[in-house]
Amino acid sequence: MKYIVLIMLLCNIIQAKINIYTTIEPIKVMIEMITGNLADVNTLVNGNSDPHTFTPKPRQMFDISKSDVYFSTGFKEVEDVWLSKIKKQNVNFNVIDITKNINYINSVCGHGHIHNKDPHIWTSLNESKTLLFNIYEELVKLDTPNRIIYKQNLTKALDYINTLDIQIKQNLKNKRYMSYHPSFSYFNRDYNLSEIVIEKDAKEPKPKEIIELIKQAQKDTNNIQVIIVNKNYIPKSVKLISNKLNAKVVNISSLINWPNNLLKLSLVVGEN
């Protein structure tokens, strides 16, 4: 009987999954690409929430504090506030930065001033490959016995990203588009895209600014035909500009359905 109990305990230990948290859904998808079924992965911010204004519930804070590891992505507006508070609940809270070797873009406000690093690094497939490798390295340290599985999964993930990259390149070539919020700067850099951003310092543009945006969009002989939004509603400024340009408005979020929404963006921009 003792041997049976011992075997059952050993089985439970072997089958125990790593409990991982991260900030947003795209990074969760990347982690799951590497872990497969060897980990339970959850996010601080769900896909339907705005990370810039997000407030977690007390129960969620407690659950995160008990996780095995938190993979940090440098999303300062979220992590600087909430991870420090979670650390107070559990001094052994294990936070690992997975942004090593990321080639950041600096955020620029409407007045031309450089602020923090642009946090939307997952919108670049090149930077995503760096993230995947960093995740792999950290998982091998945390769970060395499964390093071969993690290596195999990394290879599959990188192959998939490279294939997707080829598809996107076929859709895009020196294209221009408008967006309400600057979520895709890294994507633009990867594929040499020109983006006109509508919001000014995270606010609706003023009437004079809307006129300037329309003039800017009309400068090229190939007028901008699409405006990207990432909200459940269409802001007033977008309605005004789209009507003037006769441009269609498409809702594509950078926070959900990664990396398929990057392919969707390439298809929408590429057909115009």
Automatic annotation (TrEMBL):
Family annotation (Gene3D superfamilies): Nitrogenase molybdenum iron protein domain
GO molecular function, one term: metal ion binding
Record carries keyword Glycoprotein: no
Pfam family of the protein (one): ZnuA
Keywords: Signal, Transport
InterPro entries the UniProt entry points to: Bact_metal-bind_prot9, ZnuA-like
GO biological process, one term: metal ion transport
Highest rank taxon of the organism: Bacteria
Similarity-based family: Belongs to the bacterial solute-binding protein 9 family.
Protein name: Zinc ABC transporter, periplasmic-binding protein ZnuA
